[in-house]
């Protein structure tokens, strides 16, 4: 790249149409005119910034190396003298002013006593669109809520008079010793919640000696996240499989080279979900589109914008190929019925994550914990219970949830959103405290259930009779809100005289 | 009819009593004095317009050919000079003003992301009486709500790692290829929601290549609806059987001649239901009737006013006669238990619709989806599962609902109210978008459940264990509202000194 | 009784202490000094009126012949010149003023479309204490609400294509032909709701050709109620058995002589229930009792005040004696488990009412309809199903409730509170309309379930799988209201600087 | 102890740092500098009172002999001239002013009709921190609420026509005759609710002839509570086992010597629970700790502060030792599954309390009543049902709850919080009335279920089919509050023009 004289804001501002579109990102200008039709998130969002500085919008949803990787070097126009770029007068958005007020009053970290508390704080202090992306789920968000509710249908049968002076929470996951049986599961777009993104989670995982699973759709670049890890800190890779298998191969090989110790192939997301809360939070006046009924494809939210590369053709036939390109243990993330757990064992993978993608994909998919309770008795009957490691994720908020999963046969559990919320509200300290709270809770609850270590947790310690009962599920909020309830008679009509 | 000089408003206004009653409809006067006692909707509603222009009230609940057909030509008094008719000063009805305000602020079509959203908008912008007619159901409206709630007790068991790059939503209904397995089911009085009435649905059905079922009680004339269909567009006929079988025969033969491809005989409505919300929305001061306890028969709502011709004597014995008068496939609409499905097969009909009439007839009738789940295992056991086509309707709001029905063995589902609401709020564009949303949802959810086409949907993909559990049903709103809950002690009584 | 000169208010007012206590009732003075300790309702309530006119308080809870019967003639002091009695200045009770306002706006009768509507109106227009007595039930009022809720766990399996042009609602109860299978069950203290009391129900029962059960604790005298009946109108007697069997015998013999056609012995009330809503509604400043913890026995509400004569020693051993003193059919009212139904058959009675006394006695007693569903299969297995007539009461509000009971094997159902509420709100016209609404509902619902007459109703028409499921019961309002829910963190503490 | 001249407030106030810390309690000064690091409740709370009068804070959570027992005599600095001690100006705490207002309006005792009423009053009039300690429970407080809810899933099958003129509520517990089958179970820190503490309960237990269980963590000294008992009044001892078995031995031997008739060893609390409501109610500005994520260990609430001595190593192996040091009957308090009941029988103890510690320890532990329903059928099958006495506690609020427990096989039930609330609101009179209300309720309900005495209560009188159904549990308040429900579309965006 030859040195160029600095561009000025005035110059860039001239290129502000779909036929001639420049944008500024991190102080450098790019000509994206030809790229416009290919942008996975649609042209519209780019055109909004045509001739302007797009950095703030760009950052959370693109790893920093995106432009390097995907835009031809010839379109890199070089540095801009940012003093010449007119800052858009931020309107006094009353919503934003309210949010700033809430931030000023946000609770002290010490006022958070459990993982729900972080979510409550995050809801108050996050930007609406970021909250919309993190908190949203598929359709009526039944499955998302069921994920946690399902744990409420499992009750304990504690043992008494066990010597629990010393309690050991540690276990081993894919050969790695960890201090407590959870890992930080992969979640996308960490910079929506915190300016530093996923590396915050890396540091907290290290402090508490748990594994972090690195997401394909991270805001940070993969290497940044690996670089943020401490010596010997174990990370796994979550993988969305690209239609272009060469790209996938490169990603996997690179991850293995960088030391990743597990490959978690997402199998519950051939297409990323419609999440209406996310879509609604991003809605803005569509202008001249008003008359048309054709606008379905707009405003699909962040999820679909960033996921068009995912291959819906991925199938069992691809598993041997994965085994051929890596020595990392391979796990299928998003298995949802016992039949497929058995298939996974037959396919020779090292593990499965029973998961519904945090309720973000197929609504009315069952919770991981319910699939686990369906799966283990069958595996035991077939003598297969030790053939693979079984993990679950979704809805874990209390150490009792972790203990229930382990009683039922899980090796460990993945936790995603709670750490995102803790990070969004309080940064590293929030995630640190969240993990510590789980440890404190778990140490006590191990004592109270009468177990000295996780190996002693067993099915006799839980009562799952009600787990499969879906007679009373999460509220159908939309249906309830549109229903016009019957009323008893009002006052008599007033005389018309 | 001889040409007459135009009548004047002053002249018409003189005939304003039950013994001499003229009304104006679409600019022409009619003498309805003798017809008064025969009016299915009662005399009162006509007398309200005695000597006046009744067009606005007349239109939504009478097909345009009604007066031609049912009022003797001698009573047709000819055109009125409408400039001489005094317009009733519309009172500044505060309720109507509020509604107009809501209309001005109604959401853009693009803000609707699912079928519930259209209902929410319709509730806000429709006239109270029209909303009352569409949204009301029998007694406590338990069944109406159960229709959708039942789907919430069915959970998915998705398959993973199926190649779902290409997903085909199409199927065949009574030999007709359709793009997605739903049809527009018959609903009465379309003009209450939209000035054009049912033809709006005709056009939308054509655009999305689905079948429309034409209702007996349409606001548009039957021929209008057929005429609105495109070349090759398939329509079915929903039939309320008249006490006078000759009329029924004429209707059926005419429908067949005009190309209808299916005859759906309604069997769940020997008498049309009492719908209290509808009745209450129409209540007006009954004046001198106040003292009497005899007023039960008034204000029965639109449903009963228009349905007095229906034959409550219809029975299994009539089925052979229907088979003798038409070559159209015959289906029974409103079958509600497996015993009657078997009887229907024995009677030689081509199909059944498991339905409770949208909850508008017998409250506590079970949902179509539950009857389906009861029926199919029995049919399979008897080897009868392929003898007829089985449809369900009631409560479908999401593509997941459609998929659940197909997994359980339905050929397709009927959707009624949601399209009425979309039409009432946004006209054709609303219905168009509603259908497109269902297609978008379904394409994604087929991928997520792991099915390439509807033939791959099967019972192993759903968990119906909780479907038959009615321990927690739709809220009993009236009972809850009249109950006076116990309270803890209030403050001490004030001293009387 | 010799003629006396009229007493004056001034004279009566002197006798205003517990050692010398006169009261005026219906314009006559009585010396109740010696009677004070025996008053079943306690001394306190009488002393409140010592030296004053007690008519308004006296009337609703004492039959008019009470003083004649229970107070020695020597204590009858003769007529008072009422012009000399000082009227107590009615304080401007703000609660009463509110009530009068609600009465002025009360809905027209025609605005009531179902039985719940009458209850809603009654709640608004009745005096708080009267409403408290009628609407209250035992403990947490769980059973009272369960009585109706239980019907919501029963669903229909309607038959189609049955010729239901003619529908016959009539049946026979204890040999009496009635127009619809309900009777007016016994409820106490009718004058609390309407100045005329139970005779209003007598007249309505006659108009609709149903049986009235006369309560022991009526506000009207027994003979008044019998006298109010039309020629040939059938009445039954509800009996609380007195500790003094001679009194009981006289009552039974008198009832038989006056033509009663059934004797319903209450067996679920050896002691009348504590009803806290009733007690709370009557609470007034206990004055000097404030310090004492001994006040449990006061303010027990109307129920216990009037019921001290009931014999808690009544047992199966008494049944033969009843059979010896009357030829009326004997029925046990309040049977609550199948074992006791069988005992009743063995004891030779003609019928039972499966009932929990409207939820007013033992909280968590099961609903009549659930006991019925438990009972009939056992009786059928033992071949006893036709040995007695089985009735249920409690919670019937819709004709669908009646139909469910008949499908399950009941001969008919008793309805109590709804008619009291209709009477309290609208007098005779209210009860008339309530009964007519039930007939209208039932005629339609018989058609919709596919039955021409009540004999065709059978167990295959209902789905009771969920009836026995008590996983989700009526709300525990007190527990919910005292629970202090966990909250997420509030704002950070304000700096103390 | 030699006589010293009185200290002055000025002198004491100089010793106000962690390196030199004096405090005043009950008019005497103590040097606690060296004791600071050992204080089970942490240094911080003491330092708040360094150089000041700590009596008010000290009293409720320390028995009066604490300083005598645990602080070396050399640190007892002798009496302080309290007239010289500056009273801290109580700030006009608006929360406290509100509370005083509520106290002024608190209901009369006669307005309390049931045990829930006392809780409602206590919630209004207690100090927030005291209420927080009494009312709080583990994690989401699911188990605490389930304890009472579980009773709502048990329904009665009453017998009729049993002679219940005389009803006897009495029974025998560990050989002691009591008037009604409940005992006052052990609860900590009675002085938080009432200045006199546990002795109030002692007196009430005597008046109603029931047993009191003396808590290890009482505010009163053990001997005070025993001294408060009347002649022949029976008391039991609840025991937290100390890591130092010598201390435990001394306590047990002393209790036996003082006449205790039962030793209840707590086995469900190897570590005292985290109770977030309690922690939150005590939260105050942590000042300079704000930045740190390490603050987990602060503000753990009263429970953990006072319980660090409890031995988490207690196990079945210790049972024989207990049998060797006392002749009192030994019972295990907190048994939670049938397997451990059988172990207890094998270990030769005299009884068990099926309990989850009032929901304060392991959340999602099952209710005592459910464990009872699991246990008794197994014991009966093994012929062990008479080998030990079985008690339950948790959630008893109504006499029907007691009756249900006895029907299912319990010997009696323990009641804790309700008496604390009655005491906190109304002192002795409150507890007296609470007990009397239970007696009144139970006498009536025994009549209504058809039992003359507690021996006649049996399993056929209850329907427990739904007890094990946990499909619908106590509300998950935190999860519900953080969930952001989907909404239907809002108004269209305003034009930006």
UniProtKB/TrEMBL annotation, chains A, B, C, D:
GO terms for cellular component: mitochondrial intermembrane space. It catalyses: (S)-lactate + 2 Fe(III)-[cytochrome c] = 2 Fe(II)-[cytochrome c] + pyruvate + 2 H(+). Residues 4-81 form the Cytochrome b5 heme-binding domain. It is an enzyme of class 1 (oxidoreductase). GO terms for molecular function: heme binding; L-lactate dehydrogenase (cytochrome) activity; metal ion binding. Homotetramer. It comes from Coniochaeta ligniaria NRRL 30616. It is found in: Mitochondrion intermembrane space. Keywords: Flavoprotein, FMN, Heme, Iron, Metal-binding, Mitochondrion, Oxidoreductase. Its EC number is 1.1.2.3. In the N-terminal section; belongs to the cytochrome b5 family. In the C-terminal section; belongs to the FMN-dependent alpha-hydroxy acid dehydrogenase family. Residues 107-467 form the FMN hydroxy acid dehydrogenase domain. GO terms for biological process: lactate metabolic process. This is L-lactate dehydrogenase (cytochrome). The keyword Mitochondrion applies. Its cofactor is FMN; heme b.
